Amino acid sequence: MFPSPIRVMIPRFMWQTVSPDATGSLIWPTAFFDAVFRAPNGWSIRDYWSRVTFGLLDLRFDLANLWWLLEREQSSLRDDRGGMIAACRAAAEENDYSLAGYDRVVCFVNPPPCNAGAIGAPGDVVLDQGGSLEMFQHEIGHLLGFEHVWGRNGVYEDPYCVMGYTGLWAHDIARPPEFARLTTIATDFWRSGRRVAAASLYRLFVRPEFGGSGALDSGQGAAGFFDPHVAHVRTGEAVWLTALSESSGAEPVLAVMPIPEGGVLAVEYRNNTGDDAGVPPAVVIQTIGARSPGAGHHEVDPPWFEATVEPQAGASALVLNGTDLAGHPFGGHRVVVEQVATASGVHRALISLH
Ligand SMILES: [Zn+2]
């Protein structure tokens, strides 16, 4: 799947037996699917994911021109995400459309509702016209291999990553005039999500299939293809970070330091520009591998939101200074903003980790 382009087929289906409580909606035209998923318009799912991964993840979506009939009952299958995807895959093949050359499929079923979402990370996805652009961004994130981020109160609780809650700190995008009269069920359809956190990029690219070492804290090269954007630091060391949404790739966007609690401390600078237009500016502190989601959760060492620091010289925050979920004490680590600078519209912060 990587580093070559990720080939994704979007087969589209009409339920043969529509549930009585289905949501009536006009079928979106193929031109709209084109615009949403793959057109070079700046806001398509392909453009979004290419931009927020520094061009590392290159989605290539294919669409069939036809909608096919899914010869199943919506009411009995719509809650079974894996069942819907299996049925759609089988139906595509029955229509003599081979999926063999594709890394993944995004099954689109109509009319809504259904239990839309991804099956695993990376995994196939099922969507319907009830979704919003940001919901699609999040689910395609799973397709690419990103897992949910965590925070104080559990899953999704990282406000600085699109793999957390959907809807938080999103920003409006201009609705193209050619779709002025198109109906969307989601009232917030024309809103785009914040970026995927640099910590999530680090976590993904640590995986060997993405060129990484497989270990969270093995130093240079740990984060595979993302490593040129990472500064590996030791305690007391300071490093300049460029705001994630303003980086041209010349300077690191993430500082990573191994910690005795396990895993790494990961610090990034987020400013309210570009895909982060809706986020409050902050230096964001996450850990990866120091805390565990516990039994019953499928995420392994997810990025874990710890705290933010004001992007002002002299500001600091102490993290991991309490106990973990099992009651074990943490030692505490301080993150200090030493200096901030702005040149040519690019915001930078000199950060030290302790
Ligand atoms: Zn999700």
Report the major sheet: 5 strands, mixed
Cα-to-Cα separation, first versus last residue: 38 Å
Describe the oligomeric state of these chains in a short phrase: single chain
What count of helical segments does DSSP give?
A: 6
Number of strands: 18
Helix content: 10-25%
Query: In total, how many domains does the architecture comprise?
Result: 2
Computed CA radius of gyration, to the nearest angstrom: 21 Å
Mean pLDDT, all residues: 95
Runs in which pLDDT lies below 50 for 5 or more consecutive residues are none
So what's the overall shape? globular
Give the helices and strands as they follow along the chain: EHHEHHEEEHEEEEHEEEEEEEEE
Strand residue percentage = 25-35%
Strand order of the largest sheet: 2-1-3-5-4
Category from helices, strands and their pairing: alpha+beta
What is bound: which ligands?
Answer: zinc ion
